[in-house]
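DM between two lab members

TW: hey, do you still have the TIGR03943 family protein entry open?
JB: yeah, one sec
JB: this one, 282 aa:
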Amino acid sequence: MKATAVTATVRGLAPSLLVALVGAALLRITVGSDVFLQYVKEGLRIPLIASGIVLLGLGIAGVVRRVTAHRQEPVMQFGRDAEGNAVWLRPAKDDGHGHDHDHGPRVAWLLTIPAVLLLCLTPPPLGSFSASREGTDAVVEPAKYADLSQQPAAPGSAAGASVTVPTPMSLTEFIGRSHDPNKSLADRKVRLTGFVSPGAQPGEWYLNRLVVSCCAADARRLRVLVHATGPAPATDSWVDLTGVWNPTPEAPATTAPRIDVSEQHAVPQPRAPYRDLPPSDQ
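TW: and the structure you got?
JB:
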C-alpha cells in the first residue's frame, strides 16, 4: 500500500517536474551562454529566456501545489468494511469513474530526452552532412557591389607598391560578386571563413556556411568550391583562407563559385555559426 502511494505521488509530480526541466534547459543555453546560437538565430535569445522563466515557474508552482495538496490529504480515515466491521481505511483518489486521472499523455515524456541533453551536453551545430545535401542552397539576391579596385596597401609596404591586403568577405558577398556582370572580383584577393566539406575531385573541397531564418531546421547552404594544393583540411573544421576567384563561364548559374587558394589556416568556430559574416567580424 505504501509503495502504491509513493508511486502515485511521483506520477503526480512528474508532469510539473518535466515542465520545470524544459524551462531550466532553456535558461541553461541562453543565460550567460551562447549555446542557443547552435540551434536558433541570435534574435531569439530574449523570447527563449522568457519562455524558460515561464516554464520553470509553472513547473515549480505545479510541484508546490501537488505537494501541498498531498500533505493536506488525510492519511487514514475511519470506516467500515463490507461485513460492517469498523476499520481504518486509506482514502481512495477517485474522479467519480472509479480510477485516477493523474497521469498525462505518455508522448509528453519524449520532451525529457532533449531537455536532459540540453542540460548535460552541448551538441555541435549543423555541419558538413547538412551542407552536402542537395537542394538546400540559400538564394543570393543580385546587388550593386562597390568596386574593389581601391584595396588598401599592406601595412609597412612602400608607397605605390602593388602589394595589397586581402578583402575580408562573407560567402554571401563572394557568391553574389561571382555573378556580378562588372567582374568586381577579377584578380582581387579575398579572405573567407567557413567550415569544410569534402569535394568530388582530388584537390577540391568546399568552404561552407549555413544560414537560418529562424532555427537550424530551416538552414540553407552557402558554399564555395576550393582549389588548393595539399590535402584538404579535416571535414567540419573551420578555416580562414585567402585566394582569388577563378571564373568558370561555362558552368551553370547554380554552380558554386570557385576560388584558388594561396594560403589557409584553421580558426575556432565562430560565436554565431549561422551568421554569414566576413572574417574580421566573426
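TW: got it. Residues 174 and 185 are 8 Å apart (CA to CA). DSSP finds five helices and eight strands in the chain.
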